[in-house]
Amino acid sequence: MVSELVTNAIRYGAQPIRLRLIHDASTLICEVSDTSHTAPHLRRAKTWDEGGRGCCWSPS
């Protein structure tokens, strides 16, 4: 997950890229930020695409 988020920031964002991990007994929060003023947008990956699915996961 971290690799996907950081890779996306490097490919599509603006430097500097920042990674912040926050951990407590039951939760890990991963934040990746950059200085781009462009908001992310949803893209639809085709079945055979190696990328383009992004990485967002939140436990219920």
SSE layout:
Layout: H1 2-12, E1 18-23, E2 28-33
Antiparallel strand pairs: 1-2
Which descriptors apply to this entry?
single chain, 60 residues, alpha+beta, two-stranded antiparallel sheet, 20% strand
Write up what this structure looks like.
The chain is an alpha+beta fold. It has a domain at 2-33. The protein contains 1 helix and 2 strands, in the order αββ. It has one helix at 2-12, and strands spanning 18-23, 28-33. It has a two-stranded antiparallel ribbon. β1 and β2 form a beta hairpin. The longest helix has 11 residues, at 2-12. It is globular, with a radius of gyration of 13 Å. The protein starts with a helix and ends in a 27-residue tail after the last strand. The mean pLDDT is 83.
Question: What's the short version?
Answer:
This is ATP-binding protein. The chain has 60 residues and is α+β, with helices and mostly antiparallel strands.
**Mean pLDDT across residues:** 83
Q: In oligomeric terms, what are we looking at?
A: single chain
Main sheet: which strands, in order across? 1-2
Number of H/I helices: 1
Low-confidence stretches: none
End-to-end Cα distance: 17 Å
Structural class: alpha+beta
The Cα radius of gyration reads 13 Å
Give the topology string: H per helix, E per strand: HEE
Estimate percent helicity. Answer: 10-25%
Outline: globular
Share of residues in strands: 15-25%
Largest sheet: 2 strands, antiparallel
Tell me the total number of β-strands. 2
